[in-house]
Design brief:
about 650 residues; alpha/beta; GMP Synthetase, Chain A, domain 3; about 30% helix; binds 5'-O-[(S)-ethoxy(hydroxy)phosphoryl]adenosine
Length: about 650
């Protein structure tokens, strides 16, 4: 442990300099760092003017007069759907936007022209239902191309969208829809998952009993499962678009108009509606997509294997790639269905050149074994990316050797729902990488590691990751809660954005992200708040109190461990254990289901009544417990520890 209380990592000495061959053709050259450092506002403004088509070019740049409510290019006017589609059509309408692969094996090839036609028809359909600029639209779909169509149609008519991950439950839909008063909900009958289906429309039906703001629910038919349609409220997608024209005038949007809200977990039970606006967000998306992934629109087949329900999919499946006129792969299913070589068979078949995935997936591939990638021809790959959590050096090396044949640069990209686009990452062709380090802030971004007092730490030590200058794709606020925006991100360290992550800066100035320092867990790269899971548990009649921690897990990064005390009259049992885990899955979604539940007569508390989560984390990770004399009820600790021990030996 260092002074700042942040644990530092093992020494990692392996260096991977870019090859001359890659460097010679790379989009990024070393001088971009100087350009970004010299004058970050001028640098980003140049990107905005060069990479984006504006209806009215901005004359204003960064407005920091009302910090932390920053504005970028506020007098500029544009439309993001226009930037993603229309501007490519004249010369490149025939180009493939998405090679889409359905989980059951059906495929679709969608050109920019077709995508544009679909978006225009659907945008007209939305308008025919009375959706106007500023109206909120919630989207709860599986990974079908129509999810991208729905988002782009919203962007076209200026209706902010809010995508709700298809794995979330009905209750999660309610929270999000109610928070923003969404007028329309777009869904599918169901979604394919490992050969069976998830009842998306049924979940919406349950949710809509408690969401009075929803006037219409639009249903795209994907699985053809039985669903019920409510007359007057529910509309089939295919009926809605049947007679619509492929011409829908794009709304002229101000650069600071809201593009979308995306909910993410914070340290309380209530998810935060992260707000992204138009001009800054798209500038961040296209610039990073081009520089970090070295996109060559003419030749690359790019694949971000994330779900569009998370920010990674928003920025790097939909907006960045389309605005850059890229050909992408979009895959509906999971990597192990029907076989554990599914991803590699797709890479082989489509000649994928760039692959962007998450450490949790890489660790699963490692576990399944190198024979799966080996059985396929992956020689088309030229660049690999990683996102969502710290990548262990071992997983980095495996990715490098077994997927990248030891000749693809790896970009380990650190960013967040809040940051909108990549912040810390190598630039391929420029940066020498170290396995496990996201390296340095990209040009135009300024990151510093500080101690508890907010003072930058010396090289070689650990602390808290902060961003010191505003950036275009940054969140503008939390929907409906400016105070929470200020207190969460801007209050901890004066004048700095605090990301909630711990980090170490090594002797070479390289950043090593150590993970969350707050009560947010990172399960398979997805953010889940301990409080959300605790609230879900306590909503069960048997539960009196609970404390939830994320314990290190070799596959999912962290796993959810819940400590539960029962109300009088309830006995712990295997059945109750199963029931509670299921209860959380119903309340939040399957990703939040605790891996284990430990029943205990009491929770360890300080004398002021605060639950000692750090201690529980130590117990779950089998670490020595240190001083527990400050506890009001120290005797409980050994009882909990022996239960945890018993659970571990069952594993
Ligand atoms: C973590 C995902 C280490 C981090 C884009 C951050 C990472 C949270 C990395 C944001 C990385 C993301 N290395 N940790 N390359 N990328 N994280 O909002 O804790 O779903 O704060 O955005 O994921 O998760 P979010």
């Amino acid at each position: 442990m260092t002074d700042s209380g942040i644990e530092s990592l093992l020494q990692e000495d392996r260096l991977f300099p870019p090859s001359d061959e890659f460097a010679a053709q790379a989009n990024a050259q070393a001088k971009v760092y100087d350009e970004g450092d010299d004058d970050f506002v001028a640098y980003w403004t140049r990107q905005a003017l060069e990479r984006i088509t504006w209806f009215k070019e901005p004359t204003e740049t960064l407005d920091d007069s009302n910090a932390p409510f920053f504005k970028w290019w506020a007098d500029g006017e544009l439309n993001i759907a226009y930037n993603c589609l229309d501007r490519h059509l004249e010369t490149g309408g025939d180009k493939v936007a998405y090679h889409w692969i359905g989980e059951p094996g059906d495929t679709r090839t969608i050109t920019y022209q077709q995508l544009s036609d679909d978006v225009n028809r659907f945008a007209n359909g939305l308008r025919s239902l009375g959706v106007e600029k500023g109206d909120k639209v919630a989207i709860y779909m599986g990974m079908v191309p129509e999810l991208a169509v729905a988002m782009l149609a919203c962007a076209r008519i200026g209706a902010p969208h809010s995508v709700i991950f298809g794995g979330f439950s009905a209750e999660s839909i309610i929270d999000r829809v109610v928070d923003q008063d969404a007028k329309v909900l777009i869904t599918c009958d169901g979604a394919w998952r490992r050969g069976s289906t998830i009842p998306l429309k049924d979940n919406c039906d349950t949710a809509m009993e408690s969401t009075p703001s929803i006037e219409h629910c639009i249903v795209y038919e994907r699985t053809k499962q039985d669903i019920s349609m409510t007359e007057g409220r529910d509309v089939w997608w295919h009926d809605l678009v049947a007679d619509q024209s492929t011409n829908c005038e794009p709304e002229v949007m101000g650069a600071e108009d809201l593009l979308y809200i995306l909910y993410t977990s914070g340290t309380t039970a209530k998810p935060k509606g992260i707000m992204h606006t138009t001009g800054g967000y798209i500038t961040g998306a296209v610039t990073t997509h081009s520089l970090v992934f070295d996109i060559k629109p003419e030749t690359d087949v790019y694949w971000c294997a994330a779900d569009i329900g998370w920010v990674t999919g928003h920025t790097y499946i939909v907006y960045g790639p389309l605005a850059n006129h890229t050909t992408s792969v979009m895959y509906e299913g999971t990597p192990d269905y029907p076989e554990k070589d599914r991803l590699w068979s797709i890479v082989e078949e489509y000649g994928v050149t760039i692959l962007y995935t998450a450490p949790t997936a890489i660790r699963a591939f490692m576990k399944w074994g190198a024979e799966y990638p080996k059985s396929r021809d992956l020689s088309s790959l030229r660049l690999l990316g990683s996102v969502g959590e710290p990548i262990n050096p071992e997983a980095w090396m495996w990715y490098h050797e077994h997927i990248g044949s030891s000749n693809c640069p790896i970009v380990d990209t650190w960013w967040q729902t809040e940051t909108g686009s990549i912040m810390i990452s190598p630039l391929p062709g420029v940066t020498t990488t170290k396995p496990g380090s996201a390296t340095k802030a990209i040009p135009g971004i300024a990151a510093e590691v500080v101690d508890k007092a907010g003072v930058p730490v010396p090289l070689g030590s650990g602390g808290f990751l902060t961003i010191t200058k505003p950036w275009p794709a940054m969140l503008r606020s939390i929907y409906g809660d400016d105070d929470r925006y200020i207190s969460t991100y801007w209050s901890e360290y004066e004048g700095r954005y605090f990301a909630g992550d711990g980090a170490k800066i090594d002797e070479d100035g390289y950043l090593w992200i150590l993970g969350r320092v707050d009560d947010v867990m990172n399960i398979s790269g997805h953010r889940i708040s301990t409080m959300e899971v605790e609230s879900a548990l306590v909503s069960h009649p048997a539960v009196a109190e609970s404390a939830v921690v994320g314990a290190a897990d070799s596959l999912t990064g962290q796993a959810i461990v819940a400590f539960v005390t029962l109300r009088r009259g309830f006995e712990d049992s295997d059945d109750l254990n199963d029931e509670l885990r299921k209860h959380v899955a119903i309340k939040i979604g399957a990703i939040a289901r605790p891996k284990s539940i430990i029943f205990t007569p009491d929770l360890p508390k300080t004398r002021s009544g605060k639950i000692m989560r750090r201690l529980l984390r130590d117990i779950s990770e089998n670490r020595s417990l240190g001083d527990i004399t400050t506890l009001a009820n120290a005797e409980i600790v050994s009882a909990i520890a022996s239960q945890a021990e018993a659970l571990r030996s069952e594993d």
